[in-house]
C-alpha cells in the first residue's frame, strides 16, 4: 500500500466552524490532490498541488483552501463549514501529473 | 461539467459471468484510467490506457479505448464475488494535471 494517511478519519462539526483535514505521504510524490465524493456525483476535484507551495483550484474549490508547506503534507481547510460540505474527502498522490493515483482511506466529514 | 459518465450505473451478475462497464467523456484526453472502490475504502488503480492505444489487458481485465467516439469499456472476465465494488473511469485532458472521474458503476457479483 502507498504510504498515504488522512486525519481525522471521521469528524462531526457544526455549521460555521473551521475544519482542517490533513493528508500525509511518505512516498515523496510531487502531486497531491483533494477530492470529495458524494452520491450521484462521483469524485470531484477540490484542489491539487504540483509542488511545495504550488497549488491550483479544481472543479469545486469554492469554500475550500489548501496549503502545502512540505512535500509530505497537504492540508485542506474549510474556513467556515456548511452543511453542503458534508461529504467523504479523499486525498490522492501521484508521481506523474496524469499518472496513476494512490488514494488515502478517506475522511468522513459531517457538518450539522 | 466535463465529468464523464459510466454506464450502467449498477450491474448485477452471477459469479463466473463477464461484466462490461462503459465510460464516455467529453474532451480530448492524454490517457484514461479505471479504478475500483470497495465499500468504505479508498480507490485503487486498476489499469491505464494511453490515447494512442486501443486495447489493453491486465489479468482478467480488458480495457478498450475509442477516441473517435470518446468512449472506453472495462471488461472483467470470469467474475468473482470479490469483484463486487464500484468501478470508476478517470481521464486527463491535454496539458492538464487533473484527473476527472466519472460517477461510477456499482457491480454486484452474486455467488
Share of residues in helices of chain A: under 10%
Q: What's the order of the H and E elements of chain A? A: EEEEEEEEEEE
Order of helices and strands of chain B: EEEEEEEEEEE
Average residue-wise pLDDT of chain A: 94
Major sheet details of chain A: 7 strands, mixed
Oligomer: heterodimer
Beta-strand percentage of chain B?
over 45%
Number of helices of chain A: 0
Portion in beta strands of chain A:
over 45%
Share in helix of chain B: under 10%
Q: Using DSSP, what is the number of strands of chain B? A: 11
Structural class of chain B: mainly beta
Structural class of chain A: mainly beta
Gap between N and C termini of chain A = 34 Å
**Rough shape of chain B?**
globular
The residue-averaged pLDDT of chain B reads 93
The greatest interface between two protein chains, and residues involved on each side, is: A-B, 26 and 25 residues
Outline the structure in words.
Helix content of chain A is 0%, strand content 58%. Chain A has no helices and 11 strands. Chain A has strands spanning 4-7, 10-13, 19-25, 31-38, 42-51, 54-57, 64-70, 73-78, 87-94, 102-103, 107-111. In chain A, the strands form 2 sheets. In chain A, strands 2, 4, 5, 6, 9, 10 and 11 form a 7-stranded mixed beta sheet that branches. A 4-stranded antiparallel beta sheet of chain A has the order 1-3-8-7, with no helix packed on it. Chain A starts with a strand and ends with a strand. With 111 residues, chain B is mostly beta strands. Chain B is globular.
Compact description:
The complex is a heterodimer of chains A (112) and B (111). With 112 residues, chain A is mostly beta strands. Chain A is built from no helices and eleven strands.
Topology:
The complex is a heterodimer of chains A (112) and B (111).
Chain A: E1 4-7, E2 10-13, E3 19-25, E4 31-38, E5 42-51, E6 54-57, E7 64-70, E8 73-78, E9 87-94, E10 102-103, E11 107-111
Parallel strand pairs in A: 2-11
Antiparallel strand pairs in A: 1-3, 3-8, 4-5, 4-9, 5-6, 7-8, 9-10, 9-11
Chain B: E1 5-7, E2 10-14, E3 19-24, E4 29-37, E5 43-50, E6 55-58, E7 61-66, E8 71-76, E9 85-93, E10 100-101, E11 105-110
Parallel strand pairs in B: 2-11
Antiparallel strand pairs in B: 1-3, 3-8, 4-5, 4-9, 6-7, 7-8, 9-10, 9-11
Amino acid at each position: 500500500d502507498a504510504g498515504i494517511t488522512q486525519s481525522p478519519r471521521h469528524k462531526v462539526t457544526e455549521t460555521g466552524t473551521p475544519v482542517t483535514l490533513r493528508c500525509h505521504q511518505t512516498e515523496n510524490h510531487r502531486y497531491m490532490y483533494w477530492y470529495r465524493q458524494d452520491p450521484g456525483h462521483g469524485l470531484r476535484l477540490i484542489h491539487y498541488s504540483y509542488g511545495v507551495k504550488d497549488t491550483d483550484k479544481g472543479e469545486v474549490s469554492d469554500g475550500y483552501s489548501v496549503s502545502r508547506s512540505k512535500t509530505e503534507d497537504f492540508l485542506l481547510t474549510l474556513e467556515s463549514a456548511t452543511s453542503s460540505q458534508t461529504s467523504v474527502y479523499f486525498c490522492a498522490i501521484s508521481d506523474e501529473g496524469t499518472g496513476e493515483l494512490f488514494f488515502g482511506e478517506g475522511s468522513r466529514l459531517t457538518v450539522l | 461539467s466535463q465529468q464523464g459518465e459510466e454506464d450502467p450505473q449498477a450491474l448485477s451478475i452471477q459469479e463466473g459471468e463477464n461484466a462490461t462497464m462503459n465510460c464516455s467523456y467529453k474532451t480530448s484526453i492524454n490517457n484514461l484510467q479505471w479504478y475500483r472502490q470497495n465499500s468504505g475504502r479508498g480507490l485503487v488503480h486498476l489499469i491505464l490506457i494511453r490515447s494512442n492505444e486501443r486495447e489493453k489487458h491486465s489479468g482478467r481485465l480488458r480495457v478498450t479505448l475509442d477516441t473517435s467516439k470518446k468512449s472506453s469499456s472495462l471488461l472483467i472476465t470470469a467474475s468473482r464475488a470479490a469483484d463486487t465494488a464500484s468501478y470508476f473511469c478517470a481521464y486527463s485532458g491535454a496539458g492538464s494535471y487533473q484527473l476527472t472521474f466519472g460517477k461510477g458503476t456499482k457491480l454486484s457479483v452474486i455467488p
